[in-house]
Write a structure and sequence with these properties.
Length: 147
Amino acid sequence: MKACLIHGPNLNLLGIRETDIYGRDTFDEINRKIKYHAETLNIEVRIFQSNHEGEIIDVIHDARNWADAIIINPGAYTHYSYAIRDAIAAVRLPAIEVHLSNVHAREEFRHHSVISPVTVGQIIGLGTMGYLLALEATKHLVERSHL
Ligand code: DQA
């Protein structure tokens, strides 16, 4: 199975950015862990990062042509991008939303996700492990849908 994993804005700065909140794993280290875990699960994962809403939407549209599932950390777009939400709804692929930090324990504006209603579920507050758990969840979801 194939998964499209999307990191949204500012996540390229992980390891440098607010390490007390997001941890010390760098963006490259996180991606290495994702690829390694995907291999052990026999998932082909393609990883994208963009700081631009339109580019993220293009990646979601293109996933329609090759991916079985989407894993997305939309960064701050989580809280207000109806355009990314609509793109996920449009492609009709199972999507899992990941947040490194526990958004509910932070500022009020982070408590609401406009993305979550079009996802299967969210994994929040578990740091890098959230992406690894999301890979397992997508595998389970996709295999179940083939039964
Ligand atoms: C984040 C949480 C968002 O509120 C924030 O804007 C981010 C990262 C997280 O992974 O915890 O950029 O999505």
